[in-house]
Amino acid sequence: MRKPRGCVAIVLHAHLPFVRHPEHEEFLEEDWLYEAITETYIPLIHAFEALMLDGVDFKITMSITPPLANMLADSLLQVRYQHHLERLIELAEKETVRTRSTPEFAPAAEMYLRKFRQAHETFVDRYHRNILTAFKAVQDAGHLEIVTCGATHGFLPLMDVNQTAVRAQVQVASNSHLKHFGRRPRGIWLAECGYWSGHDRYLKEAGIGFTFVDAHGILYGTPRPRYGVFAPVISRNGVAFFGRDIESSKSVWSAEEGYPGDFNYREFYRDLGFDAEYDYIKPYIHPMGFRTSTGIKYHRVTSKGIALDEKQPYYPEAAARKAEEHAGNFLFNREKQVEYLHEKIKRPPIILSPYDAELYGHWWYEGPDFLHAFLRKAADSSVLKLTTPAEYLEMFPEHQAVEPTFSSWGDAGYAGVWLDGCNDWIYRHLHECADRMVELATANPHAGGDLRRALNQMARELLLAQSSDWAFIMKTGTMVEYAVRRTRDHVTRFLKIDEDISRGEIDNEWLSVVESRDNIFPEIDYKVYTRIDG
Amino acid sequence: MNKKELLTESKAELIERARELELPGRSQMTKEELAGEIAKALTRATSAARTRRTRKVSATAHHESKPTATSARRSLEARARKGQAMEAENEVENGEMELDLEQADVETAVETKSKSQPAKAASPSRASRNKMPPGGEHLDQAVDLDDTSRSSTMLVKRPAAKRAPITEDRLSGQELPKQYGKDKFVLLTRDPRWLFAYWEITPTAEEDVHRTAGTDIQGAVRVLRVYDCTGMESSDANTSFDVQIHPGAKSWYIHLPTEGRAWRVELGYIGRSGRFYRIFRSNTVATPRKSVSPVIADEFRELDTDFQEIFKLSGGDQVAKGLQGFGGSAAGRKKKRPEFEEAPPEWEYEFNLPTSGSLSSRMPSSPMGIGQKKVDDFFFWVNTELILYGGTQPDATVTVQGKKVQLRPDGTFTLRYALPDGTVDMPCVAVRADGKQKRKARPVVKRNTTY
């Protein structure tokens, strides 16, 4: 067998903002998690398990962000997901009956019922509601590199005015990662690939050896990166930076040129929740009675630019064949790319292809099948080798010394998505809270009892307010009200505790309720906010 | 929490609870037994709390020196906590599984506190705020919770003072402060060509500058003076330019003439005399250079031509679309934008990169755009469904179209079918449990839609 000419590293960024509302029986935004579990996380687990069962030597990297890990480990959300899934199974059962006389929809109905039941088995029976253990098992088997992310997906470039707060995002994340995955993270996905020059020192300090930036973060680095994005670079503080490969990104991301736009694939926007007769679907949509997506979708993309009601039926088998075909095409293109680049740069290139994990399965329904097929085929390739950044750095430890530049993978490539007329108002509050947090933590090196509880909760509130998701949602314009509310609630909760502390009167009962709601990072220690130099 | 709720937790969590409750023999118990014992213990603790309510506790019992009201309260809470006083009647959280809030009752503590002034020992922005009195420290240790084990159990053992009920409006929907009452001026980098500054000016700062300027403040304009301080130490600067701003503005976007520089901004007034009166000076920020580095390490120099191609392969031609790539000049490309607009800038250059802003699959957004179409076109659709329902003896066997049907406990059943155009034939058969009797029915339904 020939020696591989280069490497391919697939990186899936799995993240959802921390959404948990025990105060409501049902909460629409919690569905983000439930949908992602059913459509993305469990299908990925199934794909990894099938590959392992067949002894396929695959490698893949995933960031499972601390908010996501905290939600997946949360018993309230676990129980709620189980109920959600059980209701979905009930609906799918009815659907297999309802579609009996319509052969064009029956295969899809059967597929949903089968998949939901499998998901139930995986979630409840096999992993006892905690699918983090499933990912951990794939990690421990050496196939999956799990990396972390800023504690609450905070966009660090806009936090730079408070270095202690930047550092805290990394430190809290590292501790949370250790708790959930049994080891410290070796790599980190900086939220939105947002890198600000100098933050590498906090990664280094946390023992994190590599991270990812968008292509221009490396291409515009100093000095010129000799190998473009096809080799990592090492920053002054000794962290390896991998740049995103645009060609492979596009083939999956792009709605125009990408695979997910194929006419055979499932149409995301046409959902039974909106199509079905009202009384029939009522028990399965929002309890307030407005229609929501159920995840049961019977139509395919069909063609570009046609109305939703003109969409044609979805045939799972045809879609699965297409996914297999696209996986072959993706591998073929990567092999060509690797060979060409090897010629050019006279060394084995690495092609780094990062994606939002939820793209696979949730948006692109066949995505997990595609990935499954690609990993299986790629493991047999004589041209390229699947790898993870950690493994690649072990094979090739020396790289050009380059300082990456400020960049993000957001629209226009910098901070514009998160700093815009619609969301810039949040920063004066976030910065003020961060400053107060640092001040309080520094002045209270040994707080105990209620004061410690209060300070720990302030840290949670600050971190939750710092999620880049809120600014992002405000920018995209959907669910804005929720994002505004979350920002406001975390900031005002923070400020109330701050005020209570200053009055020497901690409102215990109130604090208990807030602790029970914003219960992310039970292990947190506010002392992570003790002021650092610089 | 009752036993059933407890059973939704893992065994490890239950053992942890049992440990906190100091239940004897917990390590030998099954999950079922654990849940039962914990539920019992919780009930016991609740009634203990009811008893405790009337008891008076000496406020200073634990103190060694300098008792304060705060530490006194702590002491009371510590005792209440130790007794695991609980009361379920104030259950605040609906649907809360893990952290059922069982309110403890420590009215005595509240009484004590309300009769004395709250201590200032722990108030912020004062040097002493964080030094708890020695007695406080001592007590803190006594009530110290194990942080790592707290997630699932903290509320069970935590007492709370009885006050106004925790209504939703005390937790959510509060207004943000309009100002924080302190001077602040912060500069952020948005991208290579734009900075964002926000500030808060206290009346004192405003008065100070008015005092300095004297009559020169009459008719003065408020400006941001933007310094290019690339490569400069401290307060030195290469060049500067002014941006006039609205007097009432609290933030501003600043358009920059060049990329890859370091900037600092001062907020102040230009008096009638032309003199600049500074209110604040910002932090210094850098903007990235949106082009490849001019720095080429010696040993790579001969690869320059190659680099252009590698740059292209890396997607650099797309990154740099409409911008300075190598050697490319940006001269005359940008139309000058007014610098005083408050609204966020529009983009004069577009990246055609697949980026999360446009393509992210973050759940709240709809990035893919596959088949996404505005639904403002007029549309109309009709559909029909068929509901077939019936009943028999509950233990009979019913098939419809040859498939077995699940009967309700009362022997009835309902089936719902999509009804497309054409003929649907639905043979139904019921067989008595003993197999000795059989009944048949055969509805045939025809749908014919014309448009």
Concise structural overview:
The complex is a heterodimer of chains A (534) and B (451). Chain A has 19 helices and 9 strands.
Mean pLDDT of chain B: 67
Cα separation of the termini of chain A: 53 Å
Largest sheet of chain B: 5 strands, antiparallel
Assign an overall shape of chain A: globular
Count every beta strand of chain B, where a strand is a DSSP E run of 2 or more residues.
Answer: 16
Most extensive interface, chain pair and sizes: A-B, 161 and 146 residues
Mean pLDDT of chain A: 95
How would you portray this structure in words?
The complex is a heterodimer of chains A (534) and B (451). Chain A contains 19 helices and nine strands. Chain A is α/β, with parallel strands linked by helices and 534 residues long. In chain A, strands 1, 2, 3, 4, 5, 6, 7, 8 and 9 form a nine-stranded mixed sheet that branches. In chain A, helix 12 crosses helix 13 (367-378), helix 16 (449-465) packs across helix 19 (508-517) and helix 17 (468-476) packs antiparallel against helix 18 (480-503). Residues 49-161, 298-305 and 320-375 of chain B have low confidence and may be disordered. The longest helix of chain B has 22 residues, at 31-52. Chain B is 23% helix and 20% strand. Chains A and B meet through helix 1, helix 3, helix 8, helix 9 and helix 12 of A and helix 4, helix 6, strand 1, strand 2 and strand 8 of B.
Q: How would you summarize the topology of this molecule?
A:
The complex is a heterodimer of chains A (534) and B (451).
Chain A: E1 6-14, H1 31-53, E2 60-64, H2 66-72, H3 75-98, H4 106-126, H5 132-140, E3 144-149, H6 163-181, E4 187-189, H7 200-205, E5 210-213, H8 215-219, E6 233-234, E7 240-243, H9 246-253, H10 272-275, H11 278-281, H12 316-345, E8 350-356, H13 367-378, E9 384-386, H14 389-395, H15 426-443, H16 449-465, H17 468-476, H18 480-503, H19 508-517
Parallel strand pairs in A: 1-2, 1-8, 1-9, 2-3, 3-4, 4-5, 5-7
Antiparallel strand pairs in A: 6-7
Chain B: H1 3-6, H2 11-21, H3 31-52, H4 69-82, H5 107-115, H6 134-143, H7 154-157, E1 184-191, E2 194-200, H8 203-213, E3 221-228, E4 239-244, E5 251-255, E6 262-270, E7 276-281, E8 285-286, H9 304-313, H10 316-319, H11 356-359, E9 385-391, E10 397-400, E11 403-405, E12 412-418, E13 422-425, E14 428-431, E15 438-441, E16 444-447
Antiparallel strand pairs in B: 1-2, 2-5, 3-4, 3-6, 6-7, 6-8, 9-12, 10-11, 10-14, 13-16, 14-15
Helix pairs in contact in B: 2-3, 4-5, 4-6
